[in-house]
Predict the structure.
Amino acid sequence: MLFTYTILSCFTSFCKLPLDSLFLSALLPLSLGFSRKYQYVNLLKTWKEAQSYCRENFADMATIETVEDGASVRKILLQSTYTWTWIGLYLDLRGWKWSDQSKASFRMWMSGEPNGGAGEPCAVGSVNGWNDVRCIDKRPFICSG
Ligand SMILES: [Ca+2]
């Protein structure tokens, strides 16, 4: 099943969020203007399969470039029944890269991550941040565009 989350739905669900994040309210006007559009895909795929699916059906896997993007993705993940969801970040010999080749250096790693080196070259997002994991497990994923 495919869920589409538009900025509008983010706005309506935003009202239900606890005000633990006052900074989010400050960012909301910016988000309405400039946030990326993300698609949560509730199909279980390896990272590589998810990348192909996103490229065939949307623009690419999700790039998270700013604090506003991170907040948008977190809102999507709050509604997922899975702890970990693929995002478009992967490790190659030169470091962490975005699937769409964005140069964005923004990161939301959980404390202690990334910790797997070459053994964990794909990134997952959760409501608590990102983690590097092996790429072959099947997970839901987020596309952009
Ligand atoms: Ca890890």
